[in-house]
Amino acid sequence: MRRNLAISMTLAMIIGSFSAGTALATKPTNTCPPIASSGYFIVDVDEWWDITVVGIEDEGFADGDDAFAQSLGFADWADLEYFVKVTQWAEIDKNDNGLVCMKRRPHTPGNPYYFFNGVDDQSASPRGGGSA
Questions:
Q1: What pTM, to 2 d.p., does this model score?
Q2: Alpha-helix runs per DSSP H in the chain
């Protein structure tokens, strides 16, 4: 009887250590890959839009420039803002918690300052997404 009890207790401890290890190994919520190695940082939708606007301005266009928005195929600035803050955001924020990981891309002729990579804060692999 004591032997069965000892075996049962040992099994319970082994099973408990596996489940505790699994719980500890799950990815914490609201995190991005380490910025030092990945370049990703966490933002909400307003920060995403603000950084997009700064990128547009860094490319030489004014905040609210309808002609710039139209050059990208949008009806006007408000349509561009709606796309970035609603349509594009919903595509990246898969867990719908209002946070994503953002990464600036290197500035090149084909990669303007207003293009970024975005990945859900719970995702293991980035999905690229240009901000405009």
A1: 0.69
A2: 2-25, 35-38, 45-58, 66-71, 77-82, 89-92
